[in-house]
Amino acid sequence: MAHVVVLGAGLGGVIAAYEIKEKLRGEDSLTLVSRGETYHFVPSNPWVAVSWRKRKAIEVSLPAIMKKKHIEFVSVGAKRVHPADNRIELEDGRSIPYDYLVIATGPDLAFDEIEGLGPAGATQSICHVDHAEKAAAAFEAFCKTPGPIVVGAVQGASCFGPAYEFAMILDTELRKRKVRDKVPMTFVTSEPYIGHLGLDGVGDTKGLLESEMRNRHIKWITNARVAKVEPGKMHVEEVAEDGSVKAKQELPFAFSMMLPAFRGVPAILGVDGLVNPRGFVLIDKHQRSPKFPNVFGVGVTVAIPPTGKTPVPVGVPKTGFMIESMVTATAQNIGALIRGETPTAEATWNAVCLADFGDGGVAFVAQPQIPPRNVNWAAKGGWVHLAKEAFEGYFLGKVRKGESEPFYEKLLLDTLGIHKLKT
Ligand SMILES: Cc1cc2nc3c(=O)[nH]c(=O)nc-3n(C[C@H](O)[C@H](O)[C@H](O)COP(=O)(O)OP(=O)(O)OC[C@H]3O[C@@H](n4cnc5c(N)ncnc54)[C@H](O)[C@@H]3O)c2cc1C
Questions:
Q1: 126 CB within 6 A, ligand 1
Q2: What angle do CA 391, 392, 398 make, to 5 degrees?
């Protein structure tokens, strides 16, 4: 009998629970440990922040679904992971022992690394639905007395797509409200160029996104480091190739959303041998901890080195499809291990992304996500917005049904030559 624990019930953790359940034998058991009872679809947060979605529409209550799937559900978060003892300690003092652990705890949002950054400071966030709701209230107030907007991603950030999405969505919504003419907009990013995305670009994302920003009158500052934020004012340093400060700017704003840097969550930060200094889980090509081989990592929580040196630190994003590929490899490998076999599955880490701009968007396929690539394609069009809405409904439907990859999804992806596992 084996007991598998999945820690974290976000995008990676929920589908990991579904896929691992299918790989277990009758006598094995599975526990999903979540902080709270609700799953929320993070990619829809930008829509919540402009009131295009209510939070209820992007949330799923998990206990009944997990019960139906015979997955033990624990809604008390983990205080600490103890891999040397094969147990996790919960916030209520209980411990859960495991034979195999999958860490899917996503990011800890490092707002505290920059003075004045984040919802407790002077900027908004869309990383969590709570933040997005708060941003929606601030945006409504802003629209009554519009002024300058600053949107972007700070030094060390690894998630850039949502910053571009949110800038364009704000532009679309402000035009709808006929107040766009009162709003100077600036995009501030640590990326070395527009469309780098932490991936050294995909296809011509540089050209596509620059042209989109020009069309929408959004100015930009690249190689930017945010020194501090005060209410209504962002202090930004432009960094030269040699790392020196080229220029300093004080950007006034009446509304701002900046994506923070990520790090590992407190339950794993500093666990010796499990994580890197930033708290991300060290894994091998089978998603497995080299030091603790019964521990796996999937999603934003895993350590991936940057694609190359940049004047300002820029991380690699962990995107949805890439995370799904990590999950499939992990489920297969755990299935093999409990049967006494050698784990062989390797995730492709392919990326298939839809960046929505409210009235269109940019889609890209990067195979693999980290260059050099076999497929390096990006395109824009009105269809991207519709595709993203359809995907939201489809993904939430899968979470509600307790499915990870229905046969028709696999068939479609196989037909398109987009695979989750290396052959
Ligand atoms: C605003 C935004 C938009 C995005 N949009 C896209 C997109 O359109 N397309 C795309 O491909 N990617 C997108 N991404 C990137 C990525 O797909 C998402 O961040 C995704 O949610 C990451 O999945 P995850 O499972 O790693 O982390 P999460 O979904 O964040 O899940 C982590 C879970 O672990 C829980 N947790 C943390 N600590 C503990 C603990 N101690 N005990 C128990 N539970 C814990 C958290 O509460 C959370 O529920 C977006 C990211 C952001 C921030």
A1: yes
A2: 85
